[in-house]
Design a protein that fits this description.
The protein is an alpha/beta fold and about 250 residues long. The protein contains 7 helices and 7 strands.
């Protein structure tokens, strides 16, 4: 997929109405791709982003709604994506649940939700997408987390789910090669959680990066663009985008 841009390529991005997903949508669209934008509940935000991008290039963003916990519906979701423009060139597993689950109080429902969104759904979406990606020699990108390697206190289930997604990245690179590349991006301090953390904690996190600043969603989007457009000989890898924080003990 080493062309100068992504014109004629179709990219399915899950959880793409907000935050990092929305920024990846904008950047990949800017580089010529047609986007299949998945959302669960964020209809208003999804429609607004579609409208924004259609002012730049008409009929270039298709919206698909689905609850990724409904595994039996994921094959249809992929078929909808393919039907939009007749091909599928990349799948970005971005949708994620994130909240605290201290070990002493975590419930089975929380386990099922976090594992379902962060690990189970990406696997079965990848399975459904593989025949189409095989035809285009496409790729899969999984959005993981630096805490897949170093667990986040009070978030054990989330950390385990993302660790599983890292292994899934490597395992599927093995299973789906040579025609499909599978890689992951591990963001660090890019966006603060929607439930917020106090300013002192923000400063502490930033101080542990070597670049002494917070990253931006654009940093993740540029990495996704690189993996899709330019990284023809990279597979099974996790690219950490954290300003060096994960090297700090």
């Amino acid at each position: 997929m080493s062309s100068s841009d992504l014109s004629g390529k179709t990219i399915l991005i899950t959880g793409a109405a907000h935050r990092i997903g929305a920024q990846m949508t904008r950047m990949l669209h800017q580089n010529g791709a047609n986007i299949v934008l998945h959302y669960r509940n964020s209809s208003t935000a999804a429609k607004a982003l579609q409208s924004e991008l259609h002012t730049l290039r008409d009929n270039s963003v298709k919206l698909v709604q689905a609850d990724l916990h409904h595994i039996d519906e994921l094959a249809q979701l992929v078929k909808q994506a393919v039907a939009a423009w007749g091909n599928l060139d990349a799948l970005i597993n971005n949708a994620s649940s994130f909240y605290s689950t201290p070990a002493e109080t975590a419930t089975e429902a929380q386990w099922d939700d976090l594992m379902g969104t962060n690990l189970k759904a990406p696997f079965f979406l990848s399975q459904a997408a593989a025949p189409y990606l095989n035809q285009t020699r496409g790729c899969i990108i999984n959005i993981v987390d630096i805490h897949a390697d170093r667990p986040l206190k009070a978030y054990p289930v989330y950390s385990m789910a993302k660790a599983g997604l890292v292994m899934m990245t490597r395992a599927l690179a093995c299973e789906l090669g040579p025609d499909i590349r599978v890689n992951a991006i591990a963001p660090g301090a890019i966006l603060w959680p929607e439930n917020g953390i106090d300013e002192a904690m923000q400063e502490k996190i930033i101080s542990r990066t070597f670049l002494k600043r917070k990253g931006s969603p654009e940093d993740i989007a540029k990495t996704a663009l690189f993996l899709i457009r330019d990284a023809d000989y990279i597979s099974g890898q996790v690219i950490t985008v954290d300003g060096g924080r994960s090297l700090n003990s």
